[in-house]
């Protein structure tokens, strides 16, 4: 008999300061945020970087793609992909209370033909045959209530993530660049995706280091990435030109 996951029943709290609403899972640690006067923008820097997969796809194709988030958090990525990018979105969240709070207080839109919230354990859900090979943008942000380390971080888990992706799909994952586990996480991702498919950002001031892995490794030329960054900023207001200064392949 499977034991219940304690993450599925954590208390969910909110706080507000300076026009920003914050999500907490029973502690003072911030698990996500929303700018109250711009609820569909992405507020946190590391969460903006989770959108770096946009550098690897033609901008005009974005609206026809499927984004999946493992860990709903405050819903920032799901809302941005759904409202701003006009994508089909699936969010997998283990705690039903998180989804309820996102709908009531964090402006998560109601489900429709383009938006689905699945209450499930991500490790099990991503093995379901219906998802395999269907995801162009996979964003992984799975932390415990202390926000201390990823709860899923093995080579087998990342291999399952790779199986979700289409041939030109990408995964982005939030890690802690100043944690002793960071190098081990990079090794696990490289084992699943191949070292030439892995890119990383320098850590933010808070220590979050976003890592990107491609289903099919490619190395776009600098001028292609620059042109994409320019268009991302113009279309969607993300600081993509700044990304290129702190984003590089893991293996040169």
Automatic annotation (TrEMBL):
The lineage of its organism: Bacteria, Pseudomonadati, Pseudomonadota, Betaproteobacteria, Burkholderiales. It comes from Ottowia testudinis. One of its GO terms (biological process) is polyamine biosynthetic process. The keyword Zinc does not apply. Keywords: Polyamine biosynthesis. This is Spermidine synthase. The keyword Ubl conjugation does not apply.
């Amino acid at each position: 008999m499977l034991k219940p996951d304690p993450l599925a029943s954590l208390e969910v709290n909110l706080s507000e300061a300076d026009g920003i609403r914050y999500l907490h899972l029973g502690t003072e640690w911030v698990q996500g945020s929303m700018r109250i006067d711009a609820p569909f923008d992405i507020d946190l820097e590391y969460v903006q970087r989770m959108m770096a997969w946009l550098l690897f796809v033609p901008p005009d194709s974005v609206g026809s793609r499927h984004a999946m988030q493992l860990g709903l958090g405050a819903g920032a990525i799901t809302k941005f992909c759904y409202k701003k990018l006009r994508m089909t979105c699936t969010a997998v969240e283990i705690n039903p209370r998180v989804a309820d709070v996102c709908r009531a207080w964090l402006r998560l839109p109601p489900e429709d033909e383009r938006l689905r919230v699945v209450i499930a354990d991500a490790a099990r859900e991503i093995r379901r045959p219906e998802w395999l090979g269907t995801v162009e943008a996979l964003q992984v942000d799975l932390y415990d209530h202390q926000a201390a380390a990823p709860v899923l971080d093995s080579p087998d888990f990342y291999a399952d993530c790779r199986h979700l992706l289409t041939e030109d799909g990408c995964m982005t994952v939030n890690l802690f660049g100043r944690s002793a586990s960071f190098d081990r996480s990079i090794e696990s991702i490289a084992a699943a995706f191949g070292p030439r498919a892995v890119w990383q950002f320098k850590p933010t001031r808070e220590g979050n280091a976003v890592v990107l892995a491609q289903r099919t490794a490619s190395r776009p030329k600098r001028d292609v990435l620059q042109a994409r960054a320019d268009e991302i900023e113009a279309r969607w207001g993300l600081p993509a030109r700044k990304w290129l200064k702190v984003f590089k392949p893991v293996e040169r």
